[in-house]
Amino acid sequence: MFIDTHCHLNFDQFKMDLDDELSKAHSVGVKKFLVPSVCSVVWEDLISWQLAYESKGISIALGVHPWWASEEQCQQLNYLEELLSYKSAIALGEIGLDGLKDNYEIQCDLFEKQLGIAKNLNLPVTVHSVKAHSDVVSHLKKVKGVTGVIHGFSGSYEQAQLFVDLGFKIGVGGTITFDRAKKTKDAISRLDVNSLVLETDAPAMPLQHHRTQRNSPIYIPEVFNALLSIRDESEDYLKKMLLENSFEVFPGLA
User: Fold this and answer.
1) Which of 7, 56, 57, 249 is the most exposed place for a label (fewest CB within 10 A)?
2) Nearest partner of 38 among 108, 110, 141, judged by Cα
3) Per residue in 126-144, pLDDT tens?
């Protein structure tokens, strides 16, 4: 069995054919999916949506993505903590920092506050970190005791290891299918196998051979094969470890 630990199946790109896409994913061994939110507007809808698809392996995370960071979203954090307290979600996310966006100061404030909520509720987080690895590390060190996944990781071995040393897993997705991603592939090839989980970020981050297509959990086996090609473990052992790692970091998936 494979798990897609980060995919946005509630996005409009899947609205017309989600049932069919889930059936295809199941047929290639992808049985469970973690779907994070991006802002407060979708939290209640996502909870209702998840209930309709729970039997098909879908779990959710609630949080505010850095692209949506604003004072208004900060004002919704008490409500976020209330929703998470009812165990409707198994993680807090997608949260984090994006150095390519101009709302960076409010991103940092929102990120740290959401980490505090995760710590209070003993929930894992799924973290977006783009051009901001050192600042993400600083915030994680400040709010000690939070674990989760650095999703869609792209960077060096040294950067990845800083996250692993803080108890985080590294999300491995379509990036490693690109020939040009030498630095990231080197990092992923050298990390301890206990630190890796699979993801797609569907519908975004398509694989090299599917650049013009909507990304989907059906491509998780291709991500796995790309990972297998740069690792020393056997196929069966790597599958086993990725599954165990996913359940370790997100116990609610089990």
Assistant:
1) 56
2) 110
3) 999 999 999 999 999 999 9
Range of the domain at 64: 2-253
- Those residues whose C-beta lies under 8 Å from the C-beta of residue 123, and which sit 6 or more positions away, are 84, 89, 90, 91, 92, 117
Q: Considering just the CA atoms, what is the radius of gyration of the chain in Å?
A: 17
What distance in Å separates the CA atoms of residue 15 and residue 9, rounded to the nearest whole number?
8
Tokens 């059936």 appear where? 23
| pLDDT score at 228 | 98
For residue 39, give Cα distances in angstroms to 48, 86, 96, 142, 157: 15, 18, 12, 24, 31
Report the distance separating Cα 243 and Cα 2, nearest Å.
Answer: 7
Please name the residue that has the structure tokens 């473990």: 233
Report the C-alpha gap between 149 and 173 in whole angstroms.
12
pLDDT of residue 231: 98
| Number of Cβ within a 10 Å radius of residue 116 | 15
The three-state secondary structure class of 195 is helix
- Pull the structure tokens for residue 97: 């920092």
With cut-offs at 50, 70 and 90, classify the pLDDT of residue 173: very high
Helical (H) or strand (E) element with 113: helix 104-121
Q: Considering its fold, how many domains does the chain have in total?
A: 1
d(CA 82, CA 86): 7
Q: Do 29 and 67 form a contact (C-beta atoms < 8 A)?
A: no
Q: What is the CATH number of the domain that holds 197?
A: 3.20.20.140
User: Tokens standing for 191?
Assistant: 């990390």
Q: Is 90 exceeded by the pLDDT of residue 88?
A: no
Confidence of residue 87 (pLDDT cuts 50, 70, 90): confident
